């Protein structure tokens, strides 16, 4: 009877909601995500317009003297193309109607230039929280609204390409410029200022996301260097033979996990790890998932090109990142049907300790440069190593203003025919002449020749913006910085570098026979000062024997990284863990047996000493061990706990263990200091008011 009552209650609770959903009529005309009030349409190109209506219904779109009609398919989807339009900053209405009398009116529509902007958090970063803040305030407060707008697609992760995506705020006008992507706002403002036409940004970025997530599936599958990414997609796709096999294995492993977990009984000290769903079915930012959910629904909205700012999440990829960039660009171009779609990107920023010898992000900059060198068709790269950030340890660098301006230079020169410098000196090669390494740059990137220059320091920007400038100014009396030279011992040495006509000649008294040379090749080079006469920075690079080098080729560093992560990846690595309660300053209950426990490799003997008493145990097949000491009386006299294994592992000595009465009132207030050292945690100076 009780069961029947519960079921009845459930039906009463859910039934009205179900009926309400069925009674709510679907919109007679639904438009694709970009078609909202305040939209900017791409000039001088056919304009795809799409949406959904009743199957078989005729739908008509009217805008700026253009009128086209199409019939909705069996699934209700329809698409038509308006003939190209000239730019117009005069707000207009778009009327979409169907032959059953339904209609939608979009207001305040402009025609100009539309650019797709994508990447992770540094593309996502809001203008109001960056060095673009003053520009955003100026734009937002202007008497006349500036015709620069942005639409951001909401984040959706999907296994397959989606047709629909939401945009919570729709097309934001310049009144909300502080909420725009800082980098995209700077870029769009420069275009608008020069072209005198409306500019729209179609933003599909998401923070802390790898490049694979934004890449179209077919482009990943087609690239010979991305088999691992393709496997993740196929494993998660139950419509493929590979996916069905992966899911069969998953269900088998899940059943085994359930059985093994049940056999442990309760309580469970160390639960068994549950099997993950296969491939991208177990992820939400895996290969192709954000393309499917965030980008596919706005394709083929007419755009001019794309800008890209990403790499932090892929910084350890090595050469494979270049392959992933190739797939990204190819996939976008194929999706939009624009084989020569412009693609301009920012090379990675400074991040780390200023002037450190550590390579850090220099390696992924080198990989991005490799991609750029091998994919020059309508592709441009913006160098950022000369920005001299005030806080180079902040991964969200504040200066989004100048890289946006540099991205705009590429577009203005390459897509809009402006006769301006668009790049700094692009590294081409070096030759050895005795004890000299002579570095050459592409002639088309010199724009008047080489110079020593300076932007100044970002920290001076707030007090005196004139000290931190774009483009850089010449500083002819200064020496070139950050050049190093490599000897036959394959060690790098600080070097002297001078400009000789259109080359840089690099020497070191410590290297009589150089084999390699580098420039600005560290995690955060301060005042990298090689520019062309246009004040744009030179490409950072490192090469030995005439070839660019990468961290993955450094055997010693690869071994060190492998050793660092061995505790997490090598099941046979010696293991010793002690329950986290046993740390410096621990307080333990009096008058009760004292358990001490932890983990070690199966079959390994563990010896535990506490205040002169010693106990031993052997780790079981679940790598668990435990011992028990007899009860003791209350005392404030500290004693020591130590643990070691037959493998020779010893835990850090746990000192000042006290035995106190519950709710003991200490004379000093609570003070806890947690000191972190890699993967171990120690608590020191622990004084208490109450123990419970």
Please explain how this structure is put together:
The longest helix has 24 residues, at 241-264. By secondary structure, the protein is of the alpha+beta class. Mean pLDDT is 89; it is low at 1-23 and 659-692. The radius of gyration is 32 Å and the shape is globular. The protein is built from 12 helices and 36 strands. A hairpin with a 2-residue loop joins strand 4 and strand 5. Strands 2, 4, 5, 7, 8, 9, 10, 11, 12, 13 and 14 form an 11-stranded mixed sheet that branches. Strands 20-19-23-25-26 form a 5-stranded antiparallel sheet. It has 3 domains: 33-51 and 75-94 and 103-236 and 277-420, 3-Layer(aba) Sandwich (Rossmann fold), CATH 3.40.50; 427-553, no CATH class; 576-687, Sandwich (Immunoglobulin-like), CATH 2.60.40.
Structure, briefly:
The relative contact order is 0.08. The protein contains 12 helices and 36 strands.
List its traits:
Immunoglobulin-like; 5-stranded antiparallel β-sheet; disordered N terminus; alpha+beta; 3 domains; 692 residues; Rossmann fold; disordered C terminus
Topology, element by element:
Blueprint: H1 2-23, E1 30-31, E2 40-42, E3 47-52, E4 58-63, E5 66-71, E6 77-82, E7 88-98, E8 103-119, H2 121-124, H3 133-141, E9 148-152, E10 171-172, H4 182-195, E11 199-203, H5 217-222, H6 227-235, H7 241-264, H8 289-295, E12 305-309, H9 320-336, E13 343-346, H10 362-374, E14 379-382, H11 401-414, E15 427-433, E16 436-441, E17 450-454, E18 473-474, E19 483-486, E20 492-494, E21 496-500, E22 503-507, E23 516-519, E24 530-532, E25 541-544, E26 547-548, H12 555-569, E27 576-578, E28 587-589, E29 594-600, E30 605-610, E31 613-618, E32 624-629, E33 635-645, E34 654-660, E35 671-677, E36 680-687
Parallel strand pairs: 2-8, 8-11, 8-12, 9-11, 12-13, 13-14, 28-34
Antiparallel strand pairs: 1-3, 3-6, 4-5, 4-7, 7-8, 9-10, 15-16, 16-22, 17-18, 17-24, 19-20, 19-23, 21-22, 23-25, 25-26, 27-29, 29-32, 30-31, 30-33, 33-34, 35-36
């Amino acid at each position: 009877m009780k069961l029947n009552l519960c079921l009845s209650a459930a039906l009463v609770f859910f039934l009205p909601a179900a009926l309400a959903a069925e009674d709510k009529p679907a919109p007679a005309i639904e438009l694709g995500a970009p078609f909202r009030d305040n939209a900017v349409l791409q000039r001088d190109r056919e304009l795809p317009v799409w949406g959904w209506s009743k199957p078989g219904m005729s739908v008509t779109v009217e805008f700026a003297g253009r009128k086209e009609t199409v019939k909705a398919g069996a699934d209700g989807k329809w698409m038509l193309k308006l003939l190209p339009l000239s730019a117009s900053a005069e707000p207009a209405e778009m009327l979409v109607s169907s032959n059953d009398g339904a209609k939608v009116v979009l207001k305040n529509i402009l025609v100009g230039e539309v650019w797709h902007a994508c990447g992770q958090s540094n593309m996502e970063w809001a203008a109001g929280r960056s060095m673009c803040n003053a520009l955003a305030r100026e734009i937002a407060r202007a008497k006349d609204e500036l015709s620069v707008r942005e639409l951001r697609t909401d984040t959706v992760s999907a296994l397959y390409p989606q047709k629909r995506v939401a945009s919570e705020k729709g097309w934001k006008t310049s009144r909300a410029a502080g909420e725009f992507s800082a980098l995209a706002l700077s870029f769009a403002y420069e275009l608008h200022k020069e072209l005198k036409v409306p500019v729209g940004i179609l933003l599909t970025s998401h923070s802390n996301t790898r490049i694979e997530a934004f890449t179209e599936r077919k482009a990943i599958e087609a690239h010979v260097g991305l088999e691992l990414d393709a496997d993740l997609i196929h494993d998660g796709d139950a419509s493929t033979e590979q996916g069905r096999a992966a899911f069969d294995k998953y269900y088998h492993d899940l059943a085994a996990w359930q059985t093994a977990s049940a056999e442990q009984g309760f309580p469970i000290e160390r639960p068994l790890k549950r099997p993950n769903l296969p491939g991208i079915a177990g992820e939400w930012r895996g290969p192709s998932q954000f393309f499917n959910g965030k980008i596919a629904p706005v394709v083929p909205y007419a755009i001019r090109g794309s800008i890209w700012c990403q790499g932090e999440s892929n910084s350890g990829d090595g050469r494979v990142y270049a392959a992933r960039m190739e797939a990204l660009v190819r996939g976008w171009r194929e999706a939009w049907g624009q084989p020569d779609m412009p693609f301009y990107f920012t090379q990675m920023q400074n991040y780390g300790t200023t002037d450190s010898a550590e390579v850090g992000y220099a390696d992924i900059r080198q990989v991005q440069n490799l991609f750029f060198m091998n994919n020059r068709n309508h592709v441009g790269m913006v160098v950022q190593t000369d920005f001299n950030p005030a806080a180079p340890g902040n991964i969200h660098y504040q200066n989004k203003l100048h890289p946006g301006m540099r991205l705009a230079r590429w577009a203005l020169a390459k897509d809009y025919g402006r006769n301006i410098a668009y790049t700094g000196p692009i590294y081409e090669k070096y030759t050895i002449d005795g004890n000299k390494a002579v570095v050459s740059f592409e002639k088309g990137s010199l724009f008047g020749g080489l110079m020593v220059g300076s932007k100044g320091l970002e920290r001076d920007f707030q007090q005196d913006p004139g000290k931190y400038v774009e483009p850089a100014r010449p500083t002819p009396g200064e020496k070139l910085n950050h050049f190093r030279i490599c000897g036959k011992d394959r060690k790098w040495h600080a070097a002297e570098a001078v400009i000789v006509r259109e080359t840089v000649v690099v020497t070191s008294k410590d290297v009589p026979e150089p084999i390699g040379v580098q420039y600005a090749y560290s995690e955060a080079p301060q005042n990298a000062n090689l520019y062309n006469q246009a004040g744009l920075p030179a490409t950072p690079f490192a090469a030995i024997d005439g070839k660019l080098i990468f961290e993955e080729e450094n055997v010693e560093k690869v071994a060190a990284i492998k050793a660092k992560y061995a505790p997490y990846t090598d099941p046979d690595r010696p293991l010793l863990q002690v329950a986290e309660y046993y740390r410096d300053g621990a307080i333990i209950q009096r008058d009760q047996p004292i358990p001490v426990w932890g983990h070690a490799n199966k079959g390994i003997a563990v010896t535990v000493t506490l205040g002169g008493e010693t106990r031993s145990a052997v780790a079981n097949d679940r790598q668990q061990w435990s011992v028990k000491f007899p009860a003791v009386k209350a005392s404030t006299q500290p004693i020591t706990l130590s643990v070691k294994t037959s493998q020779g592992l010893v835990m850090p000595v746990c000192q000042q263990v006290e035995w106190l009465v519950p709710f003991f009132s200490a004379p000093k207030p609570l003070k806890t200091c947690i000191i972190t050292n890699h993967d171990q945690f120690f608590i020191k100076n622990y004084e208490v008011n109450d123990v419970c």
